[in-house]
DNA sequence: TAAACCATGACGGGAGTT
DNA sequence: AACTCCCGTCATGGTTTA
């Protein structure tokens, strides 16, 4: 195999030096003076006690209202007593996690419950259709609903409800087998009184409904109103997971409401794509990608934003940093934002940091002032990154940046085909040939390594582009294909390091990190290159090869902290987290990028959105982050 | 058997035009 | 507004090769 495309002999700087020395040098980055802002936030501890006059049934109702089954709630109360609601909640979360892990069936049931169907109907539908085809189950459920004149309803999103939206989907999901028929005769958007009545019937208090109607204006739809109320509740009830007495149970917990919406979102995306797109664009919650995609700013561009206001509930500790592909299906980022305390995502294209594009969104609660980049700056054009290619680069190939580094690489045979296509001509092949070659080059990130000869990037070249030490992914019996795949799934280190750089002065004594979906350790490498000591890293990563890579890096860089690796994210339940938190005194940072498989545009087969098989692990990130926050606040 | 190879489009944003 | 065209996208599953 040709290796002559190697950029290793780049003369502008040396990627070949010993890793440790090199990394140590990076750590000594010169920096502008940093005025440390106080990143601490004022956090009241949650009042967790149940009120004295609260009978057992009220407590049960409360948790049932959050979406847990009555059986589980009873069990949790029996095991933990009535006194400590936190313990009960923890137990419930644990049950849910383990039941999700053990039974695909319950996941399926939950999925449809989340859409607002009753458990009874869902079980019946699954029994009739089997577990295999979710679409037929959905059809059946919709049929049931139509029969009962009780289809699911979506409260919090205004984007799937408008005047031309089919009214049959407007219903109250509280009790599907409700005996009264008010829904049929009530036109919720007709006048103020009807809407008020409708909202109270939905379980909102009269006060909430009135305030919402006042704030949203006389022409607001039910969906807008519920959206407003939901937002208000989220802001208010964020920390208080416990009853506000004048609210109906199912409205208490914003996460519950959000989860119900999540299921419906899937249905919505599938059936109402066109309509949604139109409506989403008018929706305040629609996330739009910035152009240029520089987030709050990048070191190489003039526009910088140094101030932002985080939603109160988003403020740490711990700090969190979540990453995923920017070009996810419509609605995914607003959903993720909703789950992550309504923090606005920061979209950044790594082409501003290195020679390859990498459009990613980051949701985090880090300060954004006084960021600084890793030094030295990595090469930012193809020619700088691979000087040897300059000699062979045709004038008709205008690329200066590579496209996104993906998980697959072109075959060596494609090189041959392109060679053959070009050989017949001189310096200026016909336009159609140029287009063919350029298209292939762009699709596969090919670079010129000889006359008429292109080649895909080698793993070590991708390592360099992504900011990893050379040979980072080598070893552990990892093939070229596997290395490319692991790298393709990774962070761009310089980009992430720029965002994490604010931690340097906050944690001079080192940092304790919970790293979910660690992959090949992009976050760890970034922190290390920033010179942030790693006191302890708890790393969750499914792939054994990747775990070996991180472990090997950990040893080779003479880390003095503790590295714990956990293969399965489900293993990280309340118990395990409590152990780890008490052992390390809590986590300072929860970092991770959950799988993008079902979000990425390259996926022909299962681009199913957030509810997809792998991408739904996003909810585990949220689950774990929620648990960490809860536990550390009650310490 | 492990690694390499290859066929497989849809979706969404941006820019321009009508 | 609505239309066109252009372009890029952390991939999967089956088949062939070494």
TrEMBL record:
Q: Please give the superkingdom of this protein's source.
A: Eukaryota
Extract the PROSITE patterns matched here. Answer: SAM_MT_C5, SAM_MT_DRM, UBA
Methyltransferase: is it a keyword of this entry?
A: yes
Broad class of enzyme this protein falls into: transferase
Q: What is this protein called?
A: DNA (cytosine-5-)-methyltransferase
Write down the EC number: 2.1.1.37
Q: Which GO terms describe its biological process?
A: methylation
Q: Identify the residues that the record assigns to the UBA domain, covering every copy.
A: 54-95, 103-144
Family designation: Belongs to the class I-like SAM-binding methyltransferase superfamily. C5-methyltransferase family.
Active site (record annotation): 596
What GO terms fall under cellular component here?
A: nucleus
Q: Which organism is this protein's natural source?
A: Hibiscus trionum
Q: Where in the cell is it found?
A: Nucleus
Keywords of the record, alphabetical order, are: DNA-binding, Methyltransferase, Nucleus, Repeat, S-adenosyl-L-methionine, Transferase
Q: What is a single Pfam family found in this protein's UniProt entry?
A: DNA_methylase
Please name the GO terms that the record assigns under molecular function.
DNA (cytosine-5-)-methyltransferase activity; DNA binding
Q: Residue limits of the SAM-dependent MTase DRM-type domain?
A: 306-635
- Which PANTHER family does this entry report, sorted A to Z? DNA (CYTOSINE-5)-METHYLTRANSFERASE DRM2, DNA CYTOSINE-5- -METHYLTRANSFERASE 3-RELATED
